[in-house]
Amino acid sequence: MSPRNPTPLQSLLLPLKPASLQCLHRFIEYKRTPLAHPVPKRRTAAVAIILFVGRKGDLYVLLSTRSGELRTYAHDTALPGGKYEDGDENEEGTARREAYEEIGLPIDTEKVRCLTLLDPFVAGNQLIVTPVVFLVTDNTINPVLNPDEVTSLFSMPLAAFLHDRPADIPGWNFGLSERVNPAPLGTVPPPERPPYTDNEDGGVGGRDGRYYQYRDVNWGGGMVRMHRFLTGREGGGVKPVYGLTAAILLHAAMVGYGEAPSFPPAAPGQRTMVQRIAWMMKRGGALPRAAEAEGLLAAWLDEDDGGGVDEKAKL
C-alpha cells in the first residue's frame, strides 16, 4: 500500500505472479535521484508508464503509435506524454493530463495509481523528461484515442525490455510471421531504410530474429547507447520501440525487477545524465536559454560535464 492509497494493491488486481508483485513494491519504494540543480519549467516534460496486470499475472506497459499528422516523431511508437503546461501541479500532473488527452486515461488516483517517479532523462530536443509510473487497478477502463495524436494502442510485457531474445520473455508469445501478408515480388516498392537499422553490428537475437539491436552515437558530450526492441507488430506498420522511449522502459524494467538486462545497457564510458545536461547548458540551445531566463544557468555552468564533442542524434 502507499500513503495516498491505503488499500493494498494485491486486493484490487488479478492474481499476480510473485515477480510482478515484487516489481510493484520496488516501484513504490523507489526514490529517484534528484538532479544536481533545478531546470527550467518551460523545458520539462513527463511521460506516463502505464502498467496493467495480464491474465497470467505478468505486468504489461501501454504503448501508442503517434499520429502521422504530428510535426515531430510522426508514426513513432511512444509513451503517452508531453511538455509541462501552466496549471500542471507537478510531473505527475503533466503525465496524467497528457495520458487523458491522448488515450482517455481517467484522471482518477484510485483507478490509476501513481507508483513512483523515475530519474529524469534529457531528450534530443533539450527537454528534461520525467517518467511517471502508473498502475491501472480497474480493468473496465476503455481507452478513447485522440486521432489527432494517437492512431493505435498496444502493450508489451515490461520485462521484455530486459531481454535480447523473445523466448526469454515471460508471458509473451512474440511473433512476426503470422502478422505479415506475403505479396508477389515486385508488386510493392521497398520502404525507405529506417534509422534504427543503421548499425547491423549491434544486432542480437538468434533464430528469433533481431528482436533487440543497439547503436552507439556521439551525443551530449560522449557516446550514448541507443536501444531498439521489436514489438512483434512491424508487419502491420508499427515501428519498433527505440530511442528515448526504449531508454526509459529499459530503466523502468531494471528498477522494477531489480536486475540488469541480458545486454550491456550503456556505451563504454557513457556519461551520466547530469553530465550530459551540464554539457548542453554550456553549449547553447533552447535549454540554456530557458535556464538563463529563469535564473538557473549559473549553477549548471559550474557543474562537471566530462568534456567531449557532439553529433546530431535522435533520442
TrEMBL record:
Classification via Gene3D superfamilies: Nucleoside Triphosphate Pyrophosphohydrolase
One of the GO biological process terms: coenzyme A catabolic process
GO MF assignments: coenzyme A diphosphatase activity
PROSITE patterns per UniProt: NUDIX
Residue segments, region Disordered: 185-207
Domain Nudix hydrolase as annotated: residue spans: 42-180
CDD domains documented for this protein: NUDIX_CoAse_Nudt7 (cd03426)
Record Pfam families: NUDIX
InterPro entries, A to Z: CoAse (IPR045121), NUDIX_hydrolase-like_dom_sf (IPR015797), NUDIX_hydrolase_dom (IPR000086)
UniProt-listed PANTHER family: NUDIX HYDROLASE (PTHR12992), NUDIX HYDROLASE DOMAIN-CONTAINING PROTEIN (PTHR12992:SF45)
Name recorded for this polypeptide: Nudix hydrolase domain-containing protein
Organism: Vanrija humicola (Yeast)
